[in-house]
Design brief:
globular
Length: 316
């Protein structure tokens, strides 16, 4: 692949922009950067796989909402792989297929996080706003379909990024996903993120109004049975915990679209912002499973039970 051809396609032929991009990722070859990202990626991958394995090993955890959280954990695991293997080491300099693979996994993981948060938000919205229809609408068949469709869409969209990275590679070059793909592709991700933010604002705003109404009912109730049902209380508690998870993810991922917009508007690589963006993106992969463990009591119990059986297999 001729480098000038790929630069014409993905950088609008501006050699100065290419030089800026290459200069922007020089810090990624430093030893400190490599050690931090390898260790952080390993921690993130281990924690998310732990959550997935506990979910698979405990039948009581296989609820509808937890299946959506597992989808998010899988997306976080892919991001951890990117951080642990591809970000710290310039292996993509050796072959085009490595750059393409990095682009495929990276683009898929970013889109998968957005789609998984969207599914979790829809699940919580239906459970609170339409509680009497929840079990009728959100069936296991529907869950399987939505998760499969979300990941199929993710792979299709991510493939475009992988193909662009594959085509743009040249011997000795750096493979920086968000800078090497076309501007329209980054715009697609920005639109998805902004759209998700708007949907979340509406959904959790509506849920918040129901929470306030619920609290007023409790305050005005003469007897406990006059307040909202116990099932609604449980759903509100679960939704509150999920809200912490998705808001943490949205906050950590928020620097990605901001960096992309500034990058294309200013035509500057913004290396320090890119470093902070990567740090928050990786932190999200670690924070999510920690929040699962701290806020979800059922997961804590299942995890302790599994560890207990491993430590003492003969215990009844």
């Amino acid at each position: 692949m001729n480098y000038s051809n790929s630069s014409d396609l993905f950088y609008n032929g501006t050699a100065n922009k290419i030089a800026n991009v290459l200069q922007a990722v020089n810090y990624e070859t430093s030893l400190v950067y490599q050690v931090v990202f390898v260790l952080s990626g390993l921690v993130g991958l281990s924690l998310n796989m732990c959550f997935i394995l506990v979910f698979m090993a405990t039948s009581s955890l296989r609820t509808v909402m937890n299946q959506f959280l597992v989808s998010l954990a899988l997306a976080d695991s892919l991001n951890s792989v990117i951080a642990m293997i591809f970000l710290p080491f310039p292996t993509e300099e050796k072959a085009a297929w490595l750059c393409g693979l990095k682009g495929l996994i990276g683009c898929c993981s970013m889109m998968a996080q957005v789609m998984s948060i969207l599914l979790v938000t829809f699940d919580r919205f239906i459970s609170i706003v339409f509680p009497f229809n929840y079990t009728t609408w959100v069936t296991q068949r529907w869950v399987n379909f939505t998760i499969s469709a979300a990941w199929l869409y993710t792979v299709i969209v991510g493939s475009f990024g992988g193909i662009q990275c594959l085509q743009a590679w040249y011997p000795g070059g750096k493979c920086v996903i968000t800078e090497i793909v076309a501007a329209w592709y980054n715009t697609v991700y920005i639109i998805h993120y902004v759209g998700l933010f708007i949907i979340m604002a509406f959904a959790y705003g509506k849920i918040g109004s129901i929470v306030l109404h619920h609290r007023r009912q409790i305050a005005a109730a003469v007897a406990p049975e006059q307040a909202a049902s116990e099932d609604l209380k449980i759903q509100l508690k679960v939704t509150k915990d999920v809200f912490v998870v998705v808001c943490t993810s949205m906050f950590c991922l928020g620097l990605i679209p901001i960096h992309l917009m500034l990058y294309h508007v200013t035509n500057l690589p913004l290396p320090k912002m890119r470093l902070v963006r990567n740090f928050f993106m990786l932190s999200n992969c670690i924070f999510d499973p920690i929040i699962y463990f701290l806020r979800f009591k059922d997961f804590q119990s299942a995890f302790k039970s599994i560890v207990g059986r491993i430590v003492n297999p003969h215990q009844n």
